[in-house]
TrEMBL record:
<dbReference type="Pfam" id="PF18073">
    <property type="entry name" value="Zn_ribbon_LapB"/>
</dbReference>
<dbReference type="Pfam" id="PF13481">
    <property type="entry name" value="AAA_25"/>
</dbReference>
<dbReference type="InterPro" id="IPR014721">
    <property type="entry name" value="Ribsml_uS5_D2-typ_fold_subgr"/>
</dbReference>
<keyword id="KW-0346">Stress response</keyword>
<keyword id="KW-0479">Metal-binding</keyword>
<feature type="short sequence motif" description="RadA KNRFG motif">
    <location>
        <begin position="254"/>
        <end position="258"/>
    </location>
</feature>
<keyword id="KW-0862">Zinc</keyword>
<dbReference type="InterPro" id="IPR020588">
    <property type="entry name" value="RecA_ATP-bd"/>
</dbReference>
<feature type="binding site">
    <location>
        <begin position="96"/>
        <end position="103"/>
    </location>
    <ligand>
        <name>ATP</name>
    </ligand>
</feature>
<dbReference type="InterPro" id="IPR020568">
    <property type="entry name" value="Ribosomal_Su5_D2-typ_SF"/>
</dbReference>
<keyword id="KW-0227">DNA damage</keyword>
<keyword id="KW-0547">Nucleotide-binding</keyword>
<comment type="similarity">
    <text>Belongs to the RecA family. RadA subfamily.</text>
</comment>
<comment type="function">
    <text>DNA-dependent ATPase involved in processing of recombination intermediates, plays a role in repairing DNA breaks. Stimulates the branch migration of RecA-mediated strand transfer reactions, allowing the 3' invading strand to extend heteroduplex DNA faster. Binds ssDNA in the presence of ADP but not other nucleotides, has ATPase activity that is stimulated by ssDNA and various branched DNA structures, but inhibited by SSB. Does not have RecA's homology-searching function.</text>
</comment>
<keyword id="KW-0234">DNA repair</keyword>
<dbReference type="InterPro" id="IPR004504">
    <property type="entry name" value="DNA_repair_RadA"/>
</dbReference>
<feature type="region of interest" description="Lon-protease-like">
    <location>
        <begin position="353"/>
        <end position="455"/>
    </location>
</feature>
Length: 455
């Protein structure tokens, strides 16, 4: 066999370069190129007779269309993000920073499924069996039938799995520890991670087991990140949250068998990750509703309404170029709101520092938060607190108009449920709830709202 040609693969995004460079052309990351061998993938022997497939017409397929067969964990926050449970014969990637709780959650899921009589195999390349057992004990899962294996070689793992009759779920923790005999690169490189993931995905399709791959998000590109296998798997979940807060958000970013944009919310405690059934209560937990500069945004995450507090601080700046700092929201979007306030509402912020923070370390991605942000900014500038029982949502256009957003009824219902009696929302919102008890104020120009807040 001729020796394969060398190539340089970015460990962050997987872009292949023919020569080494300091910066990756694909993702712009520095120092992430590593020399790898071109011959990746599991080689099939030469001269093996090929089987021919025959295409079938879609219309010729008869029988009822069934939903993908699923295994429900009973952990409802997890089942929600997977779209109703792990799908048999599919591969799911769970990504997140090291230490965020991936192994913890998956051990809890494994224990819950084992209690229902499923065969679960937990393959760990990071911890010894004794360590996993210790964790299971902490999680109250040590009495379950979860089968543990501490292995990192792909061929060994497949041989181990072959001894089990029909595993329902196989967890691989983590893809970065996998290495295969057939790939010549060092463990942790893109080629190794991809080859290992590919082998596990093939195992899932062949045996009908659900396979969960754990992937650490890596900052430095020395080992390959989960991004390089995202396109190979059927579903991708990411764990978010920061060390300063004890709750964690599991977010669907890709799902071939269910909705994306769903979130599951968990709280980390001594006994592992607990479900948070009502995230709004958590995010609004330590609210000081008398302070100027705070507004409550009625947001949506997938099918679920979430209320969060938006905090703004506007103060005269000693600097020539005032500061703008944003946590939990898009800073480009903040600049846009500031420009609209200045151009259409007569709110001058050119000499002011502006700080914006979404409470609890939560991240808002919806443009519907515009109105809540603008209200918080104006409230802070004016030094006047907003009504404590009011929620805000609506998109602001560059012309200063307030535009309707989707899911009006759900947002208002959630607000009502949590004791908010007022809302400010766009005029022309379509699905207004019937017979609601709250006061719903509609606005169509941001300038009108500014006058109302600042007097
Ligand atoms: P872990 O699941 O090991 O993270 P990952 O697999 O994503 O790297 O979680 C480790 C962190 O969680 C660690 O900092 C300790 C904490 N933890 C708890 O607070 N309570 C618990 O019951 C467990 C098992 C872990
Ligand atoms: Mg772990």
């Amino acid at each position: 066999m001729a020796r394969a040609k060398a190539q340089f693969v970015c460990q962050n995004c997987g872009t292949v370069h023919s020569r080494w460079a300091g910066k990756c052309d694909g993702c712009g990351a520095w120092n992430t190129l590593v020399e790898e061998n071109e011959a990746g993938g599991i080689a099939s022997g030469p001269g093996k007779p090929r089987s021919k497939g025959k295409p079938v017409a879609l219309t010729s397929l008869s029988g009822d269309i069934e939903d993908a067969p699923r295994i429900r964990t009973g952990i409802s926050e997890l089942d929600r993000v997977t779209g109703g449970g792990f799908v048999r014969g599919s591969a799911l990637l769970v990504g997140g920073d090291p230490g965020i709780g991936k192994s913890t959650l998956l051990m809890q899921a494994a224990a819950a499924l084992a209690r229902q009589g499923n065969t679960i195999i937990y393959v760990s390349g990071e911890e010894a069996v004794a360590q996993i057992r210790l964790r299971a004990q902490r999680l109250g899962a040590a009495d379950t039938d979860v089968k543990l294996a501490a292995e990192t070689n792909v061929e060994d793992i497949l041989a181990t799995l072959a001894q089990e009759k029909r595993p329902d779920l196989v967890i691989i923790d983590s893809i970065q520890t996998l290495w295969s005999d057939v790939a010549e690169s060092a463990p942790g490189t893109v080629t190794q991670v991809r080859t290992g993931a590919q082998a596990m995905i093939r195992f899932a399709k062949k045996t009908g087991a659900a396979v969960v791959l754990v992937g650490h998000v890596t900052k430095e590109g020395q080992i390959a990140g989960p991004r390089v296998v995202e396109h190979m798997v059927d579903a991708v979940l990411y764990f978010e949250g920061d060390r300063g807060h004890h709750y964690r958000i599991l977010r669907t970013v890709k799902n071939r068998f269910g909705p994306t944009d769903e979130i599951g919310v968990f709280e980390m405690s001594d006994g592992g990750l607990g479900e948070v059934a009502n995230p709004s209560e958590l995010f609004l937990g330590e609210r000081n509703d008398k302070a100027p500069g705070a507004s409550v945004f009625a947001g949506m995450e997938g099918t679920r309404p979430v209320l969060v507090e938006v905090q703004a601080l506007v103060a005269p700046s000693p600097l020539g170029t005032p500061r703008r700092a944003v946590v939990g929201w898009d800073s480009a979007r903040l600049s846009m709101i500031l420009a609209v306030l200045e151009a259409h509402c007569g709110v001058r912020l050119g000499q002011h520092d502006v700080y914006l923070n979404v409470a609890g370390g939560y991240r808002i991605s919806e443009p519907a938060a515009d109105l809540a942000v603008a209200s918080a900014l104006v409230s802070s500038l004016a030094g006047l607190a907003l009504p404590a029982d009011c929620v805000y949502f609506g998109e602001i256009s560059l012309s200063g108009a307030v535009r309707p957003v989707a899911h009006t009824a759900q947002r208002l219902k959630e607000a009502e449920k949590l004791g908010f009696g007022q809302a400010v929302l766009p005029k022309g919102s379509s699905d207004m709830p019937k017979n609601a008890s709250g006061t719903w104020n509609t606005v169509d120009a941001l300038a009108d709202l500014v006058v109302k807040i600042a007097g």
